[in-house]
Specification:
heterodimer, A: 288 residues, alpha/beta, Rossmann fold, 2 domains, globular, B: 361 residues, alpha+beta, D-amino Acid Aminotransferase, Chain A, domain 1, 3 domains, 6-stranded antiparallel β-sheet, 33% helix
Amino acid sequence: MIYGDKNLGVIVQNITGRQGTFHTELMNAYAREVGGRGVVAGVAPGKAGREVHGVPVYNTVKEALAEHDATASVVFVPAGAAGDAVMEAAHAGIELAVVITEHIPVHDAMLAIAYAKLHDCTVIGPNCPGLLSPGECKLGIMPAHLATRGEVGVVSRSGTLTYEVVDELTRAGIGQSTVVGIGGDPVIGQTFVDVLARFEEDPHTKAVVVIGEVGGNLEEEGVRSTDLPVVTYIAGVSAPPEKRMGHAGAIIEGGEGDARSKVRRLRARNIPVASRPSEIPGLIREVL
Amino acid sequence: MKLLEYEAKRIFSGYGIPVPKGVLIREPEEVAAHLPGLGDGVVLKAQVDVGGRGKAGGVLFADDASAVLTARELFSREIKGVPVGEILVEEQLPIEHEYYVSIAVDRSSRQPVVLFADAGGVEIEKMAKEDESAVRRVVVSPLLRDIPPFLMRELLGGAPKELAPVINSLYHIFQEKDAMLAEVNPLVTTPQGVYAADAKLIVDDNALARQGIAVNRDLSEREREAEKHGFSYVELDGSIGVIGNGAGLTMSTLDLIEYHNGRAANFLDVGGGAEQERVMHAVRLVASMPDVAVIVVNLLGGITRCDEVAKGIIAAGVAPPVIVRMAGTNEEEGRRLLAECGYRMLESMDAAVKAAMEVVS
């Protein structure tokens, strides 16, 4: 419940799009199942007055919030306009924007995240599956049936790989407190550090699975920042070396963005690193 | 997508950053006509997308007498395996000092980061590793139009103030051209002023359309074909074909193959919505690689329609065996369809990869 519970009121931006419509229904099916509020309003410019699966549609976030009590938004707006949609949400008073859209230009992401911060709006994503607190709330597109409520937090840069790990945990009888997909893009709103800080404050979370990927060094930054027991998995150890991005990338990351050296550095800190997803439940049992 | 040096320099020039006088040639003989305008000595630079170009023999110096011969020599070379089709011929600058400047995306702070070093040149990376203080760095809020003077002072330290407007113009280019990286190495001072002696610009692949770039040159023809279907695709050199949904899960499948001492033939992420037609195209694309002996399909998602996926695999009708692991809706129907046509569907990715290993060993 690190970003919200049953009482969280949610809006969906671009609710009339194919993805927006489909996932609004799934999010509300989950809300009905757990007795939560779910999606209370939708936004689609020029389409005010319609309904999507019984949810009223407004032209702007501001108009939606004038009629409904909501603090979170799930953004399904197409890439070219998604940055603007996040800024609109932040400006209107949304406190948490979960951005599912992929292929957003990185400069748009930087701008939107910086602007949202000015308005005290937390951004998860872009290019992420959203978050799920089993038994409480679901924002985004995660398949809820794979998860069970429990004490292990999951934070991941990947989408489907997260489902794989959640499935493994559930099958092994290990429930999850909250599952967060932070997104695979170079620039994302919430990084491992931010999510781990919330897990640390969360009385329901006793350990965390950190699922990383090749590129950057945010996994390490996150693991270093927390006192919680952590198990990690890094995808991409077999990936061929990426095309070199000039000197700057190498200088910033110290030439250490590849998965193998990440794994090496994590193990050097005595952090358990799973060699494959199916090893994660066993490693979690050891740290709990 | 990475721009070539001459393309980047045209953009730099448009933003008022001085670049050496130069011409682009495609035949050695073209150089002669341009020599009078370029001064006594010239430098010939192969326009190839290769790191460490200078060390690999892609940059040659010449005078008026030797220019044509030198151009001929450079056109005949391959730079790290890349043939030379275009050469940028430039005046030689009377360099006083070389600096390094670049602007990149800082994942950690989610903001542009500007890097500056008092000593530019080819050894910058090594130098940065040995002495962290050799490279100064400032992050700039993306909400700002310019690098504010106080940050510029911090960045430059004791370096000449004349560099500031050039670095600020580079920041404008970084913002307006959707750059992932804008780099000048070296940025040089001469008695005539400051020049960008080299130029590197990488444009965000997600912004190519709005930058008016129609074709991503960084992709091979097959990769472009894959992109048309919405796949992200990389060819490797093993014999186990891989199709997954989501980059992380697909990468993880590749890692698992390596864990079992196998070698993957490719990376193919079908993306969201694995409908019949997409799956069919993906299976056919992977099967079209000559070395593929078996294909592992690993699809997971709440909304993946397993019956659709099964129909796509069956419709592809490829020769190599296809081993399937999938979870989603209509799983039983998918399993039944696959079994009817002799395909195996397994419960876990571990099991699927092991089964594929048995085929190739």
